Amino acid sequence: MTNKQKTFHLKKNRIIAPAFFLLILFSTFISCSQNGNNADANGYFEADETIVSSQANGMILELNIEEGENFLEKEMVGQIDTTQLYLTLLQLQSQRGAVLSRKPDIEKQTASLKEQIVAAQRELQRVENLAKGNAATSKQVDDVRTQVSLLQKQLEAAENQLQNNTQSITKESNPIAYQIAILEDQIEKTKIINPISGTILAKYAKKNEMTGIGKPLYKIANLDEIILRIYITNAQLSSIKIGQKVDVMIDQSENNQKNYEGFIEWISSKAEFTPKTIQTKEERSNQVFAVKIRVKNDGYLKIGMYGEVKFQ
After folding, report:
1. What is the C-alpha separation between 6 and 36, in angstroms, rounded?
2. Which residue of 7, 183, 204, 252 could cross-link 89, Cys pair, CB 3.0 to 4.6 Å?
3. Residue 109: which H helix or E strand, with range?
4. Nearby residues of 266 by Cβ (< 8 Å), 6 or more positions away
């Protein structure tokens, strides 16, 4: 290459380099304007998370969940061992059966007296008929009537006594019945039932592990709708209200944003300091109000994703 050609290329590079730098600055300015900074507030997406805990003690026999899987409300996802509970239940049922077997059979034990009363009433009717024909005396009628009355009182006393015995035995068996009900409830709670429809976010336990009442098993959240938590200043507080429609934006690509429609569902009634993620001492000294915005999720919104809000 000749000296003249080298000089030409050098001058050309000196012209192109500043132009290329200006183009980068212009692109950056356009990008900032698009992504811009016209948002009224920003924050991060979160979900209404539910931690499902064990309601029984024992070994986990089944826990058929994995992170990222979707489950319906009231869907059974696991089972905790019920052996000890079931054996105790059988024992209590046997005890209650033995107690209740002492209950008297009122019908059978009063059947003889009832038959005697029926026979006495027939005899009374016969004697009364004879007395009408002067074939029987009034004393005979009174004697038979007294006998009927006596048998009826004996029947009433016997039935009262038997009913008292029955009530006493029933009361004796009630505590066992309550214990049986408690055990049946505990056995039912060994079934791991999913409380809400949603996506498994975290799994804390596995099959064949021991668990206990209150120990977390997994975390689930309904991601069909997701919440953007933002913080606004006191000056912005008077411009928003519960139920207000807002524009929510996320970065879809480097230079483009995706827009969503959101609704303000909660505004904090108390001011608080700005989140600790703000580093400068001056910004931390400012107090803000937390706001939750519910957004319908089309699958692109994720927990922890950054989002911006423009109030309408």
Report:
1. 44
2. 183
3. helix 106-132
4. 242, 291, 292
Question: Could you give phi then psi for residue 227, rounded to 5 degrees?
Answer: -115, 130
d(CA 119, CA 130): 17
CB 141 within 8 A of CB 127: yes
CA 43 to chain centre: 29
For 260-299, the pLDDT digits (tens) are 999 999 999 888 876 655 544 455 557 899 999 999 999 9
Average pLDDT, the chain: 86
Output the six-digit token pair for 97.
């059966």
Mean pLDDT of the region 221-247:
94
Of 15, 46, 37, 33, which is closest to residue 226 (Cα–Cα)? Answer: 46
> What is the rounded distance in angstroms from the CA atom of residue 271 to the CA atom of residue 277?
17
How many angstroms from the chain centroid is the CA of residue 305? 27
**Comparing 26-40, 105-119, 146-160, 293-307, which segment has the lowest mean pLDDT?**
26-40
Q: pLDDT for 138-174, tens place per residue?
A: 899 999 999 999 999 999 999 999 999 999 999 999 9
DSSP 44-98: EEE--EEEEE-SS-EEEEEE---TT-EE-TT-EEEEE--HHHHHHHHHHHHHHHH
Lookup result for tokens 């998370």: 49
Six-digit token string for 168: 């006493």
Q: Rounded to the nearest 5 degrees, what angle is found at the Cα of 125, between the Cα atoms of 123 and 126?
A: 65
